[in-house]
Specification:
Layout: E1 10-14, H1 20-23, H2 30-47, H3 53-72, H4 78-92, H5 96-101, H6 107-113, E2 118-120, E3 128-130, H7 144-163, H8 178-181, H9 197-206, E4 211-217, H10 225-233, E5 244-249, H11 259-276
Parallel strand pairs: 1-4, 4-5
Antiparallel strand pairs: 2-3
Amino acid sequence: KREQGININGIVMLSPLLEGWLTFGDDQSALRAALELPSLAATHLENTNAFTPQALAAAEKFALGDYLTTLAGPPLQGEAARAFYQRVANITGLPVDTVTQSRGFVTGNFVKTLHEGKVVSRYDATFAVDDPFPEQRGARGPDPILDGVARAYGGAFAAYARNELGFKTEMTYKLLAGDISGHWDWGGSGRGDAGVDSDLRVLLSFSPKFRLLIGSGLSDLITPYAEARYVLDHLPPTDPPGRAVLKTYRGGHMVYLDPQSRKAFTADAAAFYKAGAR
């Protein structure tokens, strides 16, 4: 913050929302669908024990190549359509009929149709539970991952505050307080206009020592990792180069829930801080 005389030399972001127009944009946006597809592919590869960096890279190439251009163009017909929808089904694990019905825009169907009779977590799509409302077309009820995390971590922090910090209170600690977050000031016309692209451009341009580390989970459908990569890829070149980096990890929005990903992110963050202290 220049107004307070604070120089920012580095930022670490974990599962960030960088540009609202990408995350909350039109459900029929070809670009948005293409940036979500790699996370769906990563989920299917994990679910089938077929995950390799090469397999994911092939899905990423398809997402920003044939998939993007096909969705952006007129709907395919005949054999070309059948072949395309089958390829999307193979990459995502979704039934080909579902892919065909949605004309390839599959993210909205993923939560309810990936596993019959189950609902998938948007926070980590590799996790699913029995669908409490199977008769509903759309997902309903709490998120399978978020609800459990909020309960467990909320109780853990309350115990920490009481037993370790000596903070005695009768108030209930809410890890996620909807009555507060519901009044978030997004600025502009709403959350679709929120974004940090301009801020990152200025920081990278005006502060030669500024560096950015973004950590993202591969199976996160809330803030898909390809959206972060897209933003970084479209920043102007910097001197020296490589000051804005995306690191991906197995797991979802809360990558720290996976022990190996938690260790990997911790190591990457420690290296980031150590390099900044030189």
